[in-house]
Design goal:
Length: 414
């Protein structure tokens, strides 16, 4: 393997040393995403390990080496080691004895090939030892990784019948690593078994969708999800894909990384009430839901021809985050349209926006002679409205003069 710094990373080495001290040399290998990404020359996120040691032995081996062991999923053979402040998922080699569409009853084994056979895709069934030698028990994984082919280990239809989450994982890996024509057998099986997705808890669906949408370019994968009927099973309200496609364009035009949550929002229907319903159905967190509902709001109106001053008022009223989301979603309707240059200018201005604060407070209003009470709030509201209209002047003298005039007006109004 070319770039194998992750293999010699001291935190990983400490885990390998701990397990080999108990199980002997070669009892543990790197597996899954880290090996796949190393082969593909992609950055490595987290490190998963596979071992012949059974879970209890893993726990005691880690403890003996002074590492923390978290029993993440003992039934399925998974223990998380904490080393150098990071988590390493260690799973005992296993085969699935019985499956029910999502959960499996497992039996531990010491056979790497058996372990590979229960993994989802050939490019995810790659192992590497601590010297960086890659093992490919299915015989197909290395070639698949190099070519960006997402192919089920074994028969696609049977593997999905065992665990329907694999449908979403298929499209997630397709979005992140797929190149060339997608595997026809896999697509057909996803389509045939799309109904089974109804049994997945919303939390799992949301997690997979957000991971999928975090790929730099998920457009083709989402198009295939729509074509196979998978998208409508997990997002029944998803409209056409043009806003998602447009948003991906906008991100690219602005040189920004993927914004998975906003991309999800671009697949939702457009009114805040509908967004709230979708957020509830998919069990978004409060913060995620609030962001997407705010992004769907319409007032104050953002248009490509709005003036800079009007944009600044909108930024002040909405907050920069909400305004940015709305600008991007609006621009996403026609990323290369006649207004593209205007939208780009507005987004750039919004990015540079520094929040403004009114230089006077309630105490200043009282000091200026207003009786404490509702009039203070009213005077502040009027003052802020004037200040926004005047494009946020900073001098306190001008604000004081205006405040005096406002207070006179309120008095006269009595
Ligand atoms: P990522 O970079 O997203 O972490 P990954 O391939 O490491 O990708 P994980 O979800 O961390 O994905 O899973 C680790 C490995 O466990 C996978 O590579 C795969 O071999 C196996 N695996 C995970 N989930 C399943 C599943 N539902 N069915 C079969 N194998 C699975
Ligand atoms: Mg992983």
């Amino acid at each position: 393997m070319e770039d194998a710094a992750w293999i010699t990373d001291p935190a990983a080495v400490a885990v390998l040393d701990a397990l080999e001290a108990a199980g002997g040399p070669g009892c543990v290998r790197f597996v899954g995403g880290c090996v796949r990404n190393a082969v593909m020359g992609r950055p490595i996120a987290d490190i998963d390990l596979a071992t012949r040691l059974e879970p209890e032995a893993v726990v005691s081996a880690l403890k003996a080496a002074g590492l923390k062991a978290v029993p993440t999923g003992l039934d399925h053979g998974t223990v998380t080691a904490v080393s150098g402040g990071r988590g390493f998922e260690i799973t005992t080699l296993r085969r699935d004895v019985e499956t029910d569409g999502r959960r499996a009853v497992v039996a531990f084994t010491s056979d790497w090939a058996e372990d590979a056979a229960r993994r989802d895709f050939t490019l995810n069934a790659l192992y590497a030892d601590r010297e960086g030698w890659v093992f490919d028990p299915t015989g197909q994984g290395l070639a698949a990784a190099r070519a960006g082919r997402i192919v089920f280990v074994g028969e696609a239809d049977r593997r999905i019948a065992e665990d329907c989450l694999r449908i979403l994982r298929f499209f997630r890996f397709l979005a992140a690593y797929g190149q060339g024509e997608p595997d026809a057998e896999a697509l057909a099986a996803c389509e045939a078994r799309a109904d089974s997705l109804a049994s997945l808890p919303a939390e799992r669906v949301l997690k997979e969708l957000l991971s999928l949408l975090a790929a730099p370019n998920p457009r083709e994968a989402v198009r295939l999800m729509a074509r196979t009927g998978v998208l409508s099973r997990v997002l029944p309200a998803a409209g056409d894909l043009s806003r998602l496609n447009g948003l991906c364009e906008v991100e690219a035009l602005m040189g920004e990384g993927p914004d998975a949550l906003l991309r999800l929002g671009s697949l939702f229907p457009e009114t805040p009430a509908e967004v709230a319903r979708e957020a509830e159905r998919l069990r978004l967190s409060g913060a995620q839901r609030d962001r997407l509902i705010a992004a769907a709001g319409r007032e104050p109106r953002l248009t490509p021809w709005m003036s800079s001053a009007a944009l600044r008022r909108a930024l002040h009223l909405l907050g920069a985050g909400v305004a940015q989301d709305r600008l991007r979603l609006a621009w996403a309707r026609a990323p290369h349209g006649a207004s593209a240059g205007d939208w780009r200018g507005l987004v750039a201005e919004a990015r540079a926006w520094k929040p403004r604060t009114l230089g006077l407070s309630g105490a200043d209003v009282v000091a200026a002679g207003a009786p404490p009470g509702p009039r203070v709030g009213e005077a502040l509201r009027q003052l802020e409205a004037w200040w926004m209209e005047a494009d946020f002047p900073e001098g306190r003298e001008a604000l004081r003069a205006r405040l005096a005039a406002i207070l006179r007006g309120l008095e006269d109004g009595n």
